[in-house]
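Chain X:
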Amino acid sequence: MTDFAAIRKEFPILDQEIHGHPLVYLDSAATSQKPQCVIDAESDFYRTINAGVHRGAHELAARSTMAFEEARAKVARLVGANSAEGEEEIVVTSGATAGLNLLATAFGNASQGRGGEAARRFAVKPGDEIVVSKAEHHSVLLPFQELAVRTGATLKWFDLDSEGRILSNTADEVITERTKIVAVTHVGNTTGAITDIAPIVKRAHEVGAVVVLDACQSVPHLKIDLHALDVDFAAWSAHKMYGPTGVGFLYGKRDMLEALPPANFGGSMVELAWMDQEAQYMAPPARFEAGTQPVAQVVAAGVAAEWLMNIGLIISVLTSWIAWTLLCAEIPLAAGLNGTFPKAFSKVNKNGTAGVGLLVSTIIMQIAMLVVHFANNAWQAMYSVSSLVMLPAYLTTTLFLFKLCKTEQYRQYAARGIVLATISGIVGFLFCLFMFYAGGLNYVAMVPIFLTLGVPLFFWARKEQVAHGDNTPIFLTSEKWYLAILLALDVLAICLVVSGKITL
């Protein structure tokens, strides 16, 4: 289980009382508190490698530059962006507000012909439309409202439903052929409402509009993959994701950043400058990072991103573990209800949990783990054996399909397609045989042992059926033959392991 008390202890500010009560902080949507590792990262930077980045030739400058770019890469991983040299998609800003203003200014510059032919995709002219929503933070609304005023464009907006959610299903109506920019929030900062941006992005791209996403609340609280969302730009702040204040990030698709003209001008963003002609600007992201960067804060923000990913991983793994654990109990529960498993497996506790199935499946899994404990590669062994154990069921299913097609029974299930079904049965059977071959003798030999673990349950269920008046023998003749072959294979597998012929 996740130790949330231990996580709380990582935040030194929470170790205090307010008005005689332990501090409870519920304003993270405004600004989040900082774990000790983030605080230490910023402090350690100033104590050890403080220097300007991308400009000094001395050792500290090299170390600070490396730390700065490593932090950029961590933030990129957090949101699914590119971070390889020459393909960077993350621009460092002083905050989300600065990032959104950078975009609005750059679009305005493009509207004045700056940036050349490549930047024409961002140009806005009179009669064009800029779309926002009624749920927008002022940091989204005002920059693009100002851009509309300066360019003569029309400002339009999405309405909200009764719960404050953006009516994204009206995208076909709100976004028209004249729309050039769509800027919307992903998660509302006042309501927490999550915007279904898929129809907005789809419609915007259909008409060639640029999509700008306010991701301030979604980056800290949702698993974000900006490539999957397919937005063109996104902005968020470090201080809302457990990082320092004074730092933000702007994501842009690489081709978008390369075409976007600069918005701020100064040192670190120019290759060459002349008195009598236009300057030659650097490639992104440096083109948009004029002046001295808040290096210590960026480094700490990288630690915050890493911390956030680790916490998210813990919670994700915990959730998946609980789901898969309960699934292991649900299958025996269903089998217990239909009589395939003993009736004990059909019992549930007051919370609806199949306790018996959960206990037995856990014990079996522990036995399985014990079997592979001494394997050279325990995980690979468990994975391979678990996959192969399922093959006998598939093998018999394909055989039954082939058998079914040879009888009139098939027509009870389908009026036609018997030829295709027959071919499918044959191909499926051959594929299962191939998978056994591909699995290798080492792992195939373990399959009978794991299947044997189910025999006591089979015997238990049949005994219950006999006790309730079922005259069917506990083991039919065919089942006796199956059991004999299974036990023989068990003995063979054990002998092969003992003799060293096979090893895991």
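Chain Y:
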Amino acid sequence: MRKMGIRKGWIFLLALLMAVAGSGCGSEGMTSSAEVEKSSLVSAEPGSAVGESQPVVTALLYGSQLPAEENGVLTKIREVTGIDFQPLVVEGGAYTEKYNTMAAAGILPDIFSNNTMKAARELVENGVVMQLDSLLEEYGQEIIANRGDQFADCAAMIDGKLYGIPTMNFSRGNALMVRKDWLDHLGMEIPTTLEEFYEVAKAFTYNDPNQNGKDDTVAIAAAMSFSTTLSFLYGIYGVPYQQQCVVDGRVVPYYMHPKYLEAVQFIRKLYEEGLIEPDLLTIPNMSCLEKLWNGVYGFYYGDPTGTTNNWYPGRYTEDPLPVMTYTWIEGPDGSAGSPLAVDLTFLSINAKAKHPDAAMKLLNFLCSEEGNRLAFAGVQGVHWDWDEDGKVVYLDKYADSSEQRNDGVYCYWPMLRYEGFSDQLKTEITQYGYEIANEHNCPYAYLSEIPKAEDYVSFNADEMFSALLMTSGDMKSEYEAYIKDYLNNGGTEWIEEATDMYNAQ
């Protein structure tokens, strides 16, 4: 009951903070009222009511699915480490809002993440985070052994001292899933060129690829709200969707790439011919995924782990289950894929943490082979076990990814072990997807920080895309008008600043 109460305290506190933030009060007032709440939340020794002495360690973590407040994985982590781990898992899109609210109130948890050099410097200058070198040396041997060679390039390495631990400064990227069973039904080969892709897209939409005698398929999954799904269509033309690129020596946003309009024209062609999700401008993320799981789409561009691993077979409703593989679509200039982004995310420990040694011990455990296996797969004998071939098999109801997440599987990994247990959980098809993602990706101009001009640029790229997709006028002239508007409303300053930053890196 004690642990449940602490978790509910987190939720109550966040609700309180949101209410205060929405009232327009300054951060000074927020801090004053919130510190009282903080005192009751994390300062009291845990277990006092039942004679326990475990140190409390709080953390704010990303999550794609929220676990039950009390679950098997969390219980096991506490049991093995002797640390009362109190994580608050929020969905990825809500993380920044939660973090900013708590930071403004001065009640950041013991462990939290950031992902820019600017943020790291500000945290250090304001005394929010502690230097980690000595803690790592004493309690972080697994972390040092597994990712010590990444410390020098970490965004939180400042003046030769480490204030954050890199979590994932690599990216495996996304890949284009194609229904192999549909190709077989139609007697078609896996497409790799633009022409082949277009012909397969027509057949997937109009030639009854699922052989049920119904007009119930659409070739390409796409959703504006799920930007990943669209990125490969731009990548075919070398346009790094939602990133920046170098054009004539200047760093410009992707929609000023010389082939941007050509990419939009191709998407419009797919749209007009019914080969792409017809509601791509308005369909919610989850609705797009539900269509995928219900056998509507023949192509889906996204993270291979979800598509052919975590969602398979539990999310898919077809009988027999879909047969998938991965491919790339090479454009006129040999371009393919989407930007393979650099991830600068790092984990810091709050300078006010009551038990910084316990926080480091916890992170070190999660980076160990045992902790990594527990975080990714759950408890052996409960969630999974080895089969006779030495492969992981999920047990009973935990074959369903939703049941896994609900009981804490894949929910508590603030530390990722490089070449860890997660790789053993991937199918051969999933691994092949990552190979394709790494071999076929669209280059872009990496910026370590966001230009300050971003704060006052008045431009909506999605609005422009929607207008161009639906226009009955001259697309080129409308596009040029949008770009002129962008340049006149902060875009020129953004380009100048971004170019200077890029050249100075």
